[in-house]
Specification:
A 5-stranded mixed β-sheet has the order 2-1-5-10-11, covered by helices on one side. Helices cover 39% and strands 10% of the residues. It starts with 65 loop residues before the first helix and ends with a helix. It is α+β, with helices and mostly antiparallel strands. The chain has helices at 66-108, 154-163, 175-188, 198-207, 214-230, 233-243, 253-261, 270-279, 283-286, 292-308, 314-322, 336-351, 366-387, 432-441, 475-480, 484-494, 496-506, 527-539, 575-590, 648-660, 674-689, 746-756, and strands at 124-128, 134-139, 141-142, 250-251, 358-362, 391-397, 403-407, 449-452, 471-474, 549-554, 560-563, 605-610, 616-622, 627-633, 704-705, 716-717. It contains 22 helices and 16 strands.
């Protein structure tokens, strides 16, 4: 089979015939299609091949023509320049499209422009007392809008000098300022300057969040340009001064001037104006009430910028530097803030998320709040060093649970921790009334006798405070003198679980461990819940929920959002047992550990408490008008220097309660009138006349009865049998403390004698 070459020297095409072989279909290197830039392969000289199928002469080599290559090179250079112009135009067009797209996208994600006049701030919570007076403000505070013409000229100029020197020459966004800030940040290798104008800051405060993202910055710039087109420079500056945040919850120069300097914005000095302008950079960090040194240094920088810009004279500069601004202590910075913090924590549970300004009406009596604060602070100032006591707390509430006064610590400015609500401490003997009430409910009486003697419970040996023991004593005597061994014996007798149930029923909410030591108050409770658990003794046996919020209403429109309903009647102590417990706890003030606690003309009862190693000192006392508890101790739980519940806490309680009961009509404790107690005595009289259950046999002991606290008289010795002889003092004179009544008198004699006047 033969084949013919193409005239141009191309590849050979095979011919097919009857006698053709398949070998002719094989492709050689010469049959391959070369690319434009592929050089033909070099061929070595070789002898001709005798091939019947290929009898054409070999292709001649032609010399390369270099001229076309130079022509192609010239065309490539021209093409590159044209391509550069072409692709530059294409990229520019796409860049313009991208910019338009970004602007449109950013604009589509902007907040509604009609919200411009609404300041972006959390709601304000105004807290008022029972008399309607303002106690405190929580949340953010917006001052009244102030016209630019009503402000001293150096006040707005202070902001221009330090924040936006080119304010009157740009159109919302300042490229020069951005470039200057960029260079400064590069040189300092960090963010040292910002390029935002006052208009951009206003746009951010009105519409946007504080997040630092490119999207937010683009939105800020777009809104700034819109603001510049819609408002004049004066209007923008006025809006800015009335909307910018100054820290400590203050929005606008008026609110800031009132918060920090106690004066309206129109009366601020150059130094004060400079300090306000300096706050914008970092309101929280530079607030003068928190960082006076930092605020003063920043104000000096602003004064220098004002002088450099020609906004103030050198004389004004010297005066401002010589007399820097000083923040004043805001009104209501005292103990009432503990109440305000407690209220803020409760609001979410009562009305949910707050999205509007609200006014919270409380049960706090401002007068009593001031008395309580003075009582705690003054007593601690006088005696904290002597007793090594650093902190104190006081809670006073009505027998219905309405809190009238609360002091959560010695100094709110130094520590905002509320020791009246949040802190939980061991109540010590202040827990014993729940043990004695459980015993009374199981059939014992105030005259029931129990043994005061050493006790060993699986290696635990509770002891009395004086390490003395008095043998057989009545429950009234044991509670009044706070005898630990009797309380533990009663707890074992009635069952620790029953004691815990009684405490829960009366209002204790903290976890209590049902073991014998619970009788001595080893489980921790808060002062507020303990005072609330004493309230049933003062109100006739009804449980209460300690509360301070009476009503919540919207500031705008006066719509009532919450109104506290009265607690449903829940009798947790029978009236008879209330009377018996009140009688026993009155004896604590008459002859027991709280003899210093006395309110002339008023029946009062209560119980002292001292925890292990004198770490906590308590006194919870009450009248028919108020239930008040006092705690003293140290935050680190370190021991005091022998501070007991009958000492400093009783003195604080007495000072407060005497002042709180002035000009208040006298009222007796519930179920303490003659008819009720006569009925109780007559009911129990047949049992006593028949002998009743005999007191448990106990070996008579002789012990020294401790003298009254603070007395120099020697201890009184009890004769064998543990009973003191009847007092020989006249009926008009109170008997000596700790002298026990004759057991033979029984409840019919001793209780009637206590209740109806008798010899005591």
């Amino acid at each position: 089979m033969g084949s013919a070459r193409r005239k141009d020297g191309g590849r050979r095409e095979p011919k097919f015939g009857p006698d053709s072989s398949l070998d002719a279909l094989r492709l050689g290197k010469s049959d391959r299609i070369r690319g434009d830039d592929e050089a033909p392969p070099r061929r070595r000289a070789s002898p001709p091949i005798d091939d019947d199928d290929n009898d054409a002469p070999p292709r001649e080599r032609r010399p390369r023509n270099k001229a076309p290559r130079r022509g192609r090179s010239g065309r490539g250079s021209g093409f590159s320049l044209g391509r550069l112009v072409y692709w530059g135009a294409v990229l520019g067009l796409w860049g313009a499209i991208a910019v338009v797209g970004v602007v449109v996208w950013v604009g589509a994600h902007l907040p509604p422009i009609q919200a411009l006049e609404i300041p972006k701030r959390p709601p304000t919570i105004q807290i008022v007392g029972a008399d309607g007076s303002v106690l405190a403000n929580r949340g953010e505070m917006a001052g009244a809008n102030v016209a630019l013409k009503d402000l001293p000229p150096y006040l707005p100029k202070a902001f221009i000098a330090i924040e936006d020197r080119r304010f009157y020459s740009h159109y919302g966004v300042d490229p020069v300022g951005i470039a200057r800030a960029l260079v400064a940040n590069i040189l300092h290798r960090g963010v040292s300057q910002g390029g935002s104008t006052l208009t951009q800051q206003l746009a951010k405060n009105l519409f946007l969040t504080q997040e630092r993202t490119m999207q937010r910055k683009l939105q800020e710039a777009e809104l700034a340009i819109w603001l510049e087109r819609k408002h004049s420079k004066a209007e923008i500056l006025e809006l800015y001064l009335n909307r910018v945040y100054f820290g400590s919850g203050a929005y606008g120069v008026e609110a800031a001037a009132q918060r920090y300097f106690g004066k309206p914005a129109r009366n601020v000095t150059v130094a004060e104006a400079a300090m306000l302008a300096g706050l914008v950079k970092s309101p929280s960090r530079l607030a003068p009430n928190r960082n006076p040194e930092g605020a003063e240094r920043r104000a000096e920088t602003v004064v220098g910028a004002m002088l450099d810009a020609g906004f103030i004279t050198e004389a004004q500069d010297k005066v401002a530097l010589a007399h820097p601004a000083q923040a004043v202590t805001p009104a209501g910075a005292g103990s009432v803030n503990y109440v305000a913090d407690w209220i803020s924590e409760e609001l979410d549970d009562l009305i949910g998320q707050i999205d509007q300004d609200v006014t919270v009406e409380t049960s706090i009596d401002p007068k009593l709040q001031g008395i309580a604060e003075a009582a705690v602070i003054d007593e601690l100032a006088a005696k904290s060093g002597k007793f090594n006591v650093s902190q104190g707390a006081l809670v006073a509430m009505t027998p219905e649970g309405a809190v009238r006064a609360m002091v959560g610590g010695r100094n709110y400015g130094e520590s905002q921790f509320n020791r009246a609500v949040t802190a939980k401490r061991q109540p010590g003997s202040a827990f014993k009334p729940f043990v004695y009430l459980t015993a009374i409910e199981q059939g014992l009486t105030p005259e029931t006798v129990r043994q005061d003697a050493p006790l060993d419970i699986k290696g635990w040996k509770p002891e009395n405070y004086t390490h003395q023991y008095f043998g057989p004593v009545t429950l009234t005597q044991a509670l009044a003198m706070s005898l630990n061994t009797v309380a533990v014996r009663l707890c074992l007798e009635v069952g620790p679980k029953n004691v815990v149930r009684t405490a829960y029923r009366l209002g204790i909410s903290s976890k209590l461990d049902p073991n014998p030591s619970i009788a001595l108050g080893t489980s921790e409770v808060s002062l507020t819940e303990l005072v609330g658990a004493y309230a049933p003794f003062a109100n006739g046996g009804h449980s209460v929920t300690p509360h301070v919020i009476s009503r919540i209403r919207a500031t705008e429109g006066n719509k009532v959002l919450y109104a506290r309903a009265a607690d449903p009647p829940n009798q947790v102590i029978e009236p008879r047992n209330v009377a018996l417990m009140n009688t026993m706890m009155q004896e604590t003030l008459l002859s027991g550990t709280a003899r210093k606690a006395e309110i002339p003309g008023w029946q009062a009862a209560g119980k002292t408490g001292t925890s292990q190693d004198f770490r906590d000192a308590w006194f919870i006392g009450y009248t028919a008008n108020l239930v008040t508890g006092v705690w003293l101790g140290n935050d680190d739980n370190s021991p005091t220097r022998h501070a007991t519940g009958g000492g400093l806490p009783v003195e604080v309680w007495t000072r407060f309660m005497r002042a709180a009961h002035q000009s208040v009509p006298v009222a007796a404790l519930p179920n303490s009138d003659r008819g009720v107690f006569a009925s109780v005595a007559n009911t129990l009289s047949p049992l006593i006349d028949q002998g009743g259950p005999p007191p448990p046999a106990a070996a008579p002991m002789q012990a020294a009865l401790p003298p009254p606290r603070g007395s120099s008289s020697p201890p009184q010795l009890a004769p064998p049998g543990g009973m003191m002889p009847p007092p020989t003092t006249p009926a008009s004179v109170r008997p000596q403390p700790n002298i026990r009544p004759e057991a033979s008198a029984g409840l019919n004699g001793w209780l009637a004698d206590r209740l109806f006047g008798g010899a005591r």
